[in-house]
Every structure is written in C-alpha cells, then in structure tokens.
Amino acid sequence: MKRTSYHHGDLRATLMAASLRLIESEGLAAVSLRRVAREAGVSSGAPYHHFADRAALLSALSVEGFELLAAELTAAKAAATGPLDALTALGAAYVRFSREHPAQFRLMFRPELSQPDKHPDAHVAGDAAFAVLGETVAECVAAGSLPPDRAEILAIAWWGLGHGLASLWLDGQLDKRSARMGTHTPELVEEIMRTFTALITPGATGG
C-alpha cells in the first residue's frame, strides 16, 4: 500500500521503505528517485532533500542493511554459550537476516549500485558487520579451538558458507532440499553450521 503522508522529519525513512518495497516487488532496476517518490506518495522533488541521486539512496539502504546485520550478529553472539557456539549462531543469524530482509541483502553486496567509492559509509558499515565474525574467530583462536595461522582464512570461509546458504534460501533451493530431507530450512542451516564447526576444530591446539 502506498503511503500518502508522513510526519515531519521521517521523509528519509519513508523513501527508503518505499525503495525496499520496489526492490522486493519489481527488482533493483525499478528504483529511481522519481519512481520512489511516486511509490511513497510524495512530490517528485522530495527525494532530493535527502539523496543527491539514485546511488546515494541505494548506498543509504546498504548502510542501513549492514547496520541491521551487525546488530543481529552481535545479539546472536551475546546469546551464545561460548566462542564455538557463537560461530554457529552467527551463521544462522546471517542466513536468517537474508530471509527477513531480502531486498536489502541483495543490494548490500552490489557495490556497482551503491558506489562505495563515492559513499564510503557503506564500506565502513560492511566492515563493521564482518568485524563481529572476525572477533568471534579470534576468540576461538584464543580459546585454542581454532589454529591461529588459519584465523583469517576461516573467517572468510565462514562468511562464504553463510552467504552461499543465504543465496540458496532466497532462490528457493534450500527450501526444496530441506523438504526432501524431511526437515525445515532454519534447522538445516543450523545443522550445516554445526557440522562445519566440527570439521574445522579437530587438531586445533590449546597453546
């Protein structure tokens, strides 16, 4: 449903929400400042009060997405019982975020659209989200659960696994596989993350 009015001061949020609706319903190609204004029910010039161009709008959405992701990863980590458990929780939270915020998730990893070279806030926000994973891997190393000489490699591998599962879920493939296996997708994701944890921990020393 189009929103035809907004309270003073929340035009920016209104426009961003309208953008996400467009991305979800018609894809990224549908987003333009004029189209977003029409979707939000405001004048065609209204978006320019907050966004210089399309890239600035998409960058803002990307920043917001990474900030939301960082908050969810931080919460998942805080609720975990230890560093290794936190790794599993982070993977599940990452995949869950993609399912709950599909429009932003698809945009966040499209730098040619958000143009982080012109809008560095998106790059900074992305690094902050990844730092939650990096810190957790470092804690696993400190606890002797992961080998220190593979910390950076394992962090990237963990990210790659989570991102791959997220993409498969968004494309509907993971649901199909889960149904064939007689389980539910969230449970399958957690089991995959736990299995990966078990595979990478043998042989780690406590020194």
From TrEMBL:
<keyword id="KW-0804">Transcription</keyword>
<keyword id="KW-0805">Transcription regulation</keyword>
<dbReference type="Pfam" id="PF13305">
    <property type="entry name" value="TetR_C_33"/>
</dbReference>
<keyword id="KW-0238">DNA-binding</keyword>
<dbReference type="InterPro" id="IPR050109">
    <property type="entry name" value="HTH-type_TetR-like_transc_reg"/>
</dbReference>
<feature type="DNA-binding region" description="H-T-H motif">
    <location>
        <begin position="32"/>
        <end position="51"/>
    </location>
</feature>
<dbReference type="InterPro" id="IPR001647">
    <property type="entry name" value="HTH_TetR"/>
</dbReference>
<feature type="domain" description="HTH tetR-type">
    <location>
        <begin position="9"/>
        <end position="69"/>
    </location>
</feature>
<dbReference type="InterPro" id="IPR036271">
    <property type="entry name" value="Tet_transcr_reg_TetR-rel_C_sf"/>
</dbReference>
<protein>
    <submittedName>
        <fullName>TetR/AcrR family transcriptional regulator</fullName>
    </submittedName>
</protein>
<dbReference type="InterPro" id="IPR009057">
    <property type="entry name" value="Homeodomain-like_sf"/>
</dbReference>
<dbReference type="Pfam" id="PF00440">
    <property type="entry name" value="TetR_N"/>
</dbReference>
<dbReference type="InterPro" id="IPR025996">
    <property type="entry name" value="MT1864/Rv1816-like_C"/>
</dbReference>
